[in-house]
Design brief:
The chain is 51% helix and 13% strand. By secondary structure, the protein is α/β, with parallel strands linked by helices. It has a six-stranded parallel beta sheet with strand order 2-1-3-4-5-6, sandwiched between helices. The longest helix is centred in the C-terminal third of the chain and has 14 residues, at 189-202.
């Protein structure tokens, strides 16, 4: 994400599932241009399951809505794959924010190695590629718009948050470190730490030291 220090990247073996031919081919080109291997690029949920079994990828990148019903076939396949292989990283792309989609994905496995991004985010190349690397590495990445829409469902506790605390909360849910948030907001890390402490206290969440546990704590609140 913007403001984050460069991450060490290794080539990833990726299985991609997207029914739109133009977007699928564009993603293949983007991922391979940055050194990753797209072991399979498929257009439906059944082909996704087969490709994962055949290629044992480092990460799955899949659309939510796929043939034949164009409902939640891609998501259901992703959750099934995670149930069979809890350590399999999965990054889901969606055209719209659907609370059940985000919750089902984030509840799969132990909550690590999962991501939920809106397709608009794919246009931000560095953000998308960083999300792929983060999720493949066991991180949790959630689109800021997903966070904002989920937050609207929890109005009472959020009324206690200041505008700055809400901004920090969105960045925490993206998986950002204190240092990255400080650079993004042009404040000190101590100030970020204080904001996060206030947020966790106001939302009645347990304190957590590492970024991943912090993200999971926030997402557990959002799903509630």
């Amino acid at each position: 994400m913007p403001g984050e220090q460069p991450r060490e990247q290794r080539p990833l073996k990726i299985v991609l599932a997207e029914d739109g031919v133009l977007l699928r081919e564009g993603l293949v080109g983007l991922l391979t241009r940055f050194g990753h291997e797209v072991a399979a690029a498929v257009g439906d949920a059944d082909a996704l399951r087969t490709a994962v079994a055949d290629h044992a990828p480092d990460i799955v990148v899949t659309d939510v809505r796929m043939p034949p019903g164009f409902g939640d076939e891609g998501l259901r396949a992703a959750v099934e794959l995670r149930a069979a292989r809890p350590a399999l990283p999965v990054l889901v792309l969606s055209q719209y924010v659907q609370r059940s989609y985000a919750a089902d994905l984030l509840d799969s496995g132990d909550g690590s190695g999962v991501g939920y991004l809106l397709k608009d985010r794919v246009g931000h190349v560095e953000q998308f590629l960083d999300a792929v690397v983060r999720v493949a590495g066991g991180g949790t990445v959630v689109d800021p718009e997903v966070v904002r829409q989920l937050l609207r469902r929890r109005r009472d506790p959020l009324a206690a948050l200041t505008p700055r605390e809400r901004e920090v909360l969105g960045l925490v849910a993206e998986g950002r470190s204190n240092g990255s948030i400080a650079r993004e907001l042009v404040v000190s890390e101590a100030a970020v730490g204080k904001h996060i402490g206030n947020i966790l206290g106001k939302l009645d969440l347990p304190p957590a030291e590492d970024t991943h546990r912090r993200v999971l704590a926030v997402l557990a609140y959002l799903r509630g």
